[in-house]
Amino acid sequence: MQGPMRIATRGSKLALWQAEHIAGRLRQEHPGLEVELKVVKTSGDRIQDAPLARFGGKGLFVKEIEETLLRGEAELAVHSMKDIPSELPRGLTLGVVPERDDAADCFLSHAYPDIASLPWGSVVGTSSLRRQAQLLALRPDLSVEMLRGNLDTRLRKLEQGQYQAIIAASVGLKRLELDAPYTTRLLSVEFLPAVGQGSLGLEYVRENSEVEALLAGLDHPPSRSAITAERSFLQRLEGGCQVPIGGHATFQDQDLLLRGVVADLQGKEIIREERRLPAEEAERLGREVADSILGRGGDRILREAMETEI
Length: 310
Hints:
alpha/beta; 34% helix; Double Stranded RNA Binding Domain; 13 strands; five-stranded mixed beta sheet; D-Maltodextrin-Binding Protein, domain 2; 9 helices
């Protein structure tokens, strides 16, 4: 291509790691290809002292980056897939999904090995309503408080004793080589991750066949099928950041197994569902799991959550 491939990315350590990882893969696949990063500050990066749900949810981490693509100021954007809303702007596509990394959440503490060992009334930090609801479903006595900022900041606040424990995505800890004295991976059977967690989303202008061809070697079909099922589930629920929704698809033989959950904000009412279908029916699988949850009361939970002021 004429000129370098410009990758739009947020400026956090984790976002830069992810963008550099894809840049390295592209250079390896296409020797001689110039790749450079274009750092974009998003609304989500500017808001550090309030829940994102109050201002429009996780799309705040991608909006300005997508505008950069549409203006032709970058050819590719690298996102954490969990930050991408179920509906994309007109003209953009997520046509390539690299191989997924660990999707699980992780419990971190300086004194306690797991959720069960926390003393009554312990303070746990997270900015995710999904994590909050699932924590409170397991331990309604806990005090869940908002914790924003990059991973370094969160771990520093944990070390300073502001929280007895925090919950974070395992993949970010792994990529930045961070941990705490007690670092326990949470099993998705009882603690479902965010839709798309552990996966990168490569977004570009739909009609740019040259970029699509350059990215083709990075696509991982099994990961793409799993992400398709999860995003179909989320889209059917029409869920935003202000609603506790989790979903995780994994392969069992040749089939996809999708587990989904919808909960109220306090974790008092939680609806789980799981189904399996062949991988080629990933979109249908997501819709069926969502429809089952909606039919069992999920529609009411979602409506009430949307009406609740965060």
